[in-house]
Amino acid sequence: MRPIFLTSAAASAGVIPMILSRSSLWGPVGTVICFGLLISMVLTLYILPILYSLAYTDKTKRKEGFGDVPPKPIHPKHKHVVTSVVALLLIIATNAQAQTLSLDSCKQLAIKNNKKIIDARFEVKSSEEVRKNAFTKFFPNVSASALAMRSPDYLIKGNTPEMKLPVYDGNAANLAGATQFAYVPSIPINALDYLNMASLSVAMPIYAGGQIRNGNKMATLGEEVSRKQQKMTTTEVLVFTDQLYWIH
Asked: Scanning 47, 115, 157, 246, which has the fewest C-beta atoms within 10 Å of its C-beta?
């Protein structure tokens, strides 16, 4: 068991970087090698010895106090079990190897998994986002901000001085030489312990020398080029798939 286990485990662990590379070529190969070795190890260490034991057992059984007992013949049920298991394994292996793909299925798989086609799809999406971003330049830029502050103490603190104000009797001529005054005591002033402020600004370019219009035209043209490049790449991949299909 030790050499089989160590060999299979080392080979399975060695192809893990191939699986993690996400390569369209080496990833599937590494997956097949890794899990194929692990499954074959289980079959070799457990299933195969059991089948041999059921089919070719010739060990003599010893009963305590009765000496040796003649070898027991193979039970017919054991033969049927071994035959059924071997036939099932052969059927599974044959079906796995005899799997065929049609030309249409090959083309669909190529369109779905080909790296160039996937990159072309992302290029089209990137061009669409660039065009959408360029179209927003036709609209005004709106920005808003808000500020709120609470102070533990008043920011403006003070006291008004004591004053004596002349009493106005209705005659403006007597105001300068008034003889009666009203006393005004000192008044404390406390202000600005809470402050809030909000602002909104809107900017609309009236004329930018045709930059906005030309930018939108270039973004639209870039999107069209990306879509045509995607179609061209898809066509090349389908033609190459068709050639490989009929060659092999």
From this structure: 246
Number of domains in the chain: 3
Asked if 133 and 145 sit in the same domain, the reply is: no
Q: Does pTM surpass 0.70?
A: no
Give the range of the structural domain holding residue 248, as residue numbers without chain letter: 103-139+206-248
Tell me, yes or no, whether 80 and 47 share the same domain. Answer: yes
| Single-letter amino acid, residue 98 | A
The contacts of residue 178 (CB under 8 Å, 6+ apart) are 166, 167, 168, 169
pLDDT at 61 over 60: no
Cβ(226)–Cβ(98) below 8 Å: no
Instruction: Report how far residue 106's alpha carbon sits from residue 110's, in angstroms, rounded to the nearest whole number.
Output: 6
Lookup: tokens for 19: 């699986």
- Name the amino acid, one letter, at 235: T
Same domain assignment for residues 14 and 92: yes
Residue 113 has what pLDDT?
Answer: 87
Give the residue from 130, 134, 124 showing the smallest Cα distance to 216. Answer: 134
